[in-house]
């Protein structure tokens, strides 16, 4: 799935196994994975959670979006390993040295655990990102009782973004033709943003006004409006919701209990 | 160079009216393109809160906070999962901008600078605990993290080092965004300002 159709919400194939899992269950799954990861300071458990999320992702869909998110995080995790390995306040035991620079075990362990937590969240979210479109999510939330106005706000972002991007390209092209080019210094560059941003913002807000008037004319605010009833193809949705919520509550309670016990 | 502050009955008054419902997605879109423009020009700032600033200035702190929150949720669910937790920072920015604008702190060039500093402090205060929890205090921006490493190496507390790392990045970004928002807001047609301001 490309970034574009994730935003616009083109339908994904309904025959796959992950299409039988509803969006809320997937979101609760991310929450549980993150809580489990934060509850643990054991590298084996962290490794197990990463493996589990990775397997789930590999068995669903591999997307460039997940790789992009992973790429940035892996770079940050690498810098975290270097900085904490060298300077972590509880560093005591030298693990290895490179050209006379000592890397300490405590800092590296701390950074590895933090990095593992980030990877767990990204991989678990990756499963949601590649298997659920925003429109599918929004429709399901509306059927589950979320206000249609909130759903409209969420959904319209997906449709407005490509429109704004297209407007930006047109304005940039027009400014280039007029000779407004990116400059060298920071201030010059910032000033060169204005001839693009001002017309773009005005056009975007103008389109919002038109959209707002159209909504009012079509009676969008009608209090008698009813949510669309769609055919749910999800399996065991309520079991998933209750089960994962109970796990989340237990994990939060357990973490709080251990924190309170640690104070006394 | 002065502009009129908004005289509103209550800046906290918020209704998800048709105007606000269309303003919020527009603000999210502006955040997205401003960030893309900054990345394209390789600017050392994000500019990714410009839409949130404008939404707060046009429709008040709650609309700005909602715009910021939805911006991070959408970004987190489509591009960068960790961004979702920084939705709290965006809420803080939206509220701070809305209050400062309603109190007239976006009415002159000098006041905008002070507002930007206040907003940068709000942003750094909220982001620091998140940076410590998720990244051990780092921000992921090379020169900010170099400062963090230098401070930690000199036995400064992690929280202070992390706050400094975040603040030096935020101050530059928020000053740029505040001035951009100030200049853009002044260029908006009055009918547009009134449309979003009065529709409550």
From TrEMBL, chain A:
It is found in: Membrane. Keywords: Cell membrane, Membrane, Transmembrane, Transmembrane helix. It holds the Pfam family CbiQ. The chain crosses the membrane at residues 35-59, 65-87, 108-130, 234-257. Its main location: membrane. One of its GO terms (cellular component) is plasma membrane. It is a multi-pass membrane protein. The keyword Protein biosynthesis does not apply. This is Uncharacterized protein.
UniProtKB/TrEMBL annotation, chain B:
It comes from the Bacteria. The lineage of its organism: Bacteria, Bacillati, Bacillota, Bacilli, Lactobacillales. This is Membrane protein. It comes from Lentilactobacillus kefiri.
């Amino acid at each position: 799935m490309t970034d574009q159709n994730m935003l616009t919400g083109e339908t994904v194939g309904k025959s796959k196994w992950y299409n039988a899992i509803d969006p809320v269950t997937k979101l609760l799954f991310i929450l549980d994975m993150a809580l489990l990861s934060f509850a643990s300071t054991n590298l084996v458990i962290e490794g197990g959670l990463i493996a589990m999320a990775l397997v789930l992702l590999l068995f669903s869909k591999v997307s460039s979006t997940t790789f992009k998110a992973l790429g940035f995080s892996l770079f940050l995790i690498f810098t975290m390993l270097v900085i904490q390995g060298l300077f972590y306040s509880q560093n005591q035991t030298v693990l290895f040295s490179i050209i006379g620079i000592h890397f300490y075990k405590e800092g590296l362990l701390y950074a590895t655990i933090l990095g593992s937590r980030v990877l767990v969240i990204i991989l678990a979210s990756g499963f949601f990102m590649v298997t659920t479109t925003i429109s599918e999510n929004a429709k399901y939330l509306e059927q589950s009782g979320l206000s249609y106005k909130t759903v409209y706000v969420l959904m319209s972002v997906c449709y407005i973004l490509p429109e704004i991007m297209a407007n930006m390209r047109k304005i940039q092209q027009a400014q280039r033709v007029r000779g407004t080019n990116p400059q060298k210094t920071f201030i010059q560059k910032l000033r060169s943003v204005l001839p693009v941003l001002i017309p773009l913002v005005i056009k975007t807000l103008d389109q919002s006004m038109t959209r707002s008037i159209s909504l009012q004319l079509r009676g969008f605010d009608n209090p008698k409006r009813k949510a669309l009833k769609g055919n749910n193809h999800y399996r065991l949705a309520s079991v998933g919701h209750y089960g994962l919520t109970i796990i989340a509550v237990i994990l939060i309670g357990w973490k709080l209990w251990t924190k309170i016990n640690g104070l006394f | 160079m002065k502009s009129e502050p908004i005289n509103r009955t209550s800046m906290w008054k918020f209704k998800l009216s048709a105007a606000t419902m269309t303003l919020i997605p527009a603000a999210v879109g502006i955040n997205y393109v401003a960030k893309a423009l900054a990345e394209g020009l390789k600017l050392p700032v994000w500019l990714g809160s410009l839409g949130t600033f404008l939404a707060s200035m046009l429709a008040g702190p709650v609309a700005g906070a909602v715009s910021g929150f939805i911006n991070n949720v959408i970004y987190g669910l489509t591009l960068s999962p960790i961004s979702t937790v920084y939705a709290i920072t965006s809420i803080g920015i939206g509220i701070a901008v809305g209050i400062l604008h309603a109190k007239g702190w976006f009415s002159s060039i000098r006041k905008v600078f002070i507002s930007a500093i206040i907003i940068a402090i709000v942003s750094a205060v909220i982001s620091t605990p998140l940076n410590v929890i998720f990244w051990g205090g780092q921000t992921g921006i090379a020169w900010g993290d170099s400062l963090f490493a230098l401070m930690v190496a000199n036995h400064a507390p992690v929280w202070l080092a992390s706050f400094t790392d975040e603040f030096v990045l935020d101050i530059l970004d928020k000053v740029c965004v505040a001035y951009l928002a100030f200049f853009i807001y002044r260029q908006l047609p009055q009918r547009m300002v009134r449309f979003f301001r009065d529709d409550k």
